[in-house]
Amino acid sequence: MPKLTDLAGEALHEELGTRLKHRRVQEKLTQSDLADKAKVSRTTLTKIENGRNVGLAEFLRVADALGLLGDLDSVISMPEATPLDLLRGKKRQTARVRVRPTGGNGPGKTVRSRANNPTPPEGTFVWPEDR
Question: Residues of 115-127 as b/e, b for ≥16 C-beta within 10 angstroms?
Answer without folding.
Answer: eeeeeeeeeeeee
